[in-house]
Specification:
This protein has helices at residues 6-25, 40-56, 58-64, 68-96, 113-120, 138-152, 168-173, 198-209, 236-244, 254-257, 278-289, 304-311, 327-331, 456-467, 490-522, and strands at 126-131, 157-162, 181-185, 190-193, 214-219, 247-252, 264-270, 293-297, 315-317, 321-324, 340-341, 343-344, 358-359, 366-368, 376-383, 388-391, 414-422, 434-440. By secondary structure, it is an alpha/beta fold. It folds into four domains: 6-96, no CATH class; 113-201, Glutaredoxin; 214-473, Class I glutamine amidotransferase (GATase) domain (Rossmann fold); 486-523. Strands 6-5-7-8-18-17-15-12 form an eight-stranded mixed β-sheet, sandwiched between helices. Helix 1 (6-25) runs antiparallel to helix 2 (40-56). It is elongated and about 105 Å long. The two termini are 53 Å apart.
Length: 523
Amino acid sequence: MRYVRPNAILWTGGALLLLALVTWLFDILPFPGTRFPAWVIPLALGLSLSALGASLKFNEIQAAFGHRTARYWFNAVVGAALAVGIITVVSVLAIRHAYRWDLTENRRHSLSSQTIKILQSLPTDVTATAFFRTDQPGKRTAEELFRQYESYSGGKFKAKTVDPDREPGLARRYAVETYGTIVLETKTKSEKVLDAEEEKFTNGLLKVTRAGKRVVYVVKGHGEREVTRTDRPGLSEAKAAMERANYEVKDLLLARDGKVPDDAALVLVPGPKTDLFPPELDALDKYIARGGKALFTVDPFRGEGMKKYLAKYGITLGDDLVIEINPVGQLFGIGPQVPVVSQYDPHPITKEMGGLTTLFPLTRSVTPAKTPPKGVTLQPLAQTSDQSWGETDPLVLQKEQASRDPHEKRGPLPVAVVATIDATTPAGGKKDAKARLVVLGTSDLASNQYLGAAGNRDFFLNAVSWLAEEEDLIAIRPKDLRVAPVILTAAQEQVIRWLSLVILPGAAMLCGIAVILRRRKSS
């Protein structure tokens, strides 16, 4: 039998150990007929051969370690091997268990809770095909967004990027005319998204995964705020926000139509200036009796007819204007007639709003009855701080200052109430059908002027989603991608310039010179 050299055994063992490392890094499948990972066998053989080779050369190794140079090189090799091993293990763990920390001010690089809820409850598989040039700047942003969506979808969302210049046939098939277009597909629907932004992308998901659109009817005819007006008091922004969430918004003239249409997901009564006619109120009663959903916004010191109407459902509109002397309001540049609400009662509408403030401009108090009518369940949604009170003087709207009188109610005061009502004539014969009402003491909250302030948009859309019985849409919506530049003074710029260009490089150079001089002296 030919003699086997120890060096060959050591080299073979090292090669097997390297093979084990490669198979572990790339997750190579197990060998056929075995239950062990692919790296186990080469690892075991490599360790065995390395140990055998080392034992055969034990005397040579022991003699070599008697030399100072050998010990130095051994320590260097072991140290380098440990460093490489640590870096390799950390890299593999980072690849297999990815974690992200978003330290931006408004968490602009993290998905909103609404998007996460939608992804976790996708009813069907969704495929996204993004058409980007290879060198297009937005390509990496879209791919990073896709990775986040895939991580929360449980395998139901998959995405790929395609260069339309290299695959023109596919671009022609989807009628893609511009770079950056993203096509969302299910088995039955498709939708194009023109920007890789979370809000637009999530709204596209809703459109391809929801069956049809829910219709929101907006009552008009009594000086209400209009969804077609784009000025500050208008509701055009609220309409656009509902349409992005896959709702269809239509006007409703009850005085002419005489009833609420059967396809209504909910009815919005946005701050009427004059009282609704009795037939219109009867039409709303019939709608509520069959399990309808309605959102009322009623401004202070007006709408006596609406006050009597809501009282029969156990909701009391206060004859007041809520005033709040709160220093927090100064942060928003607002006065005492715009209470800053951060106290919410537990409810699906407000459960995601912890830590968010909402502005209730020119609001009256809205109080649930202590003893609700039969079949009615009442609950406050939002309350002002204990620094507020209900001002009963209507002239306060024309004054810049106000002071609390002894007879006026002190805060906290409820400014939003939700009611659940047993349906007496449920549509479709549904058992245990419930009507839902949300009443706000102000119509300004959803106006173009205030919808984008603080948490107003989330509060309004959460109320719409709850009324439409789409609780999975109740969450905090995607953020605006605000850029927060760092503005430095001239002195701060000088400090940074000297630190980065002179002080830190100079300190490193001095340390290096000191080490060299010290070694020369010791030698």
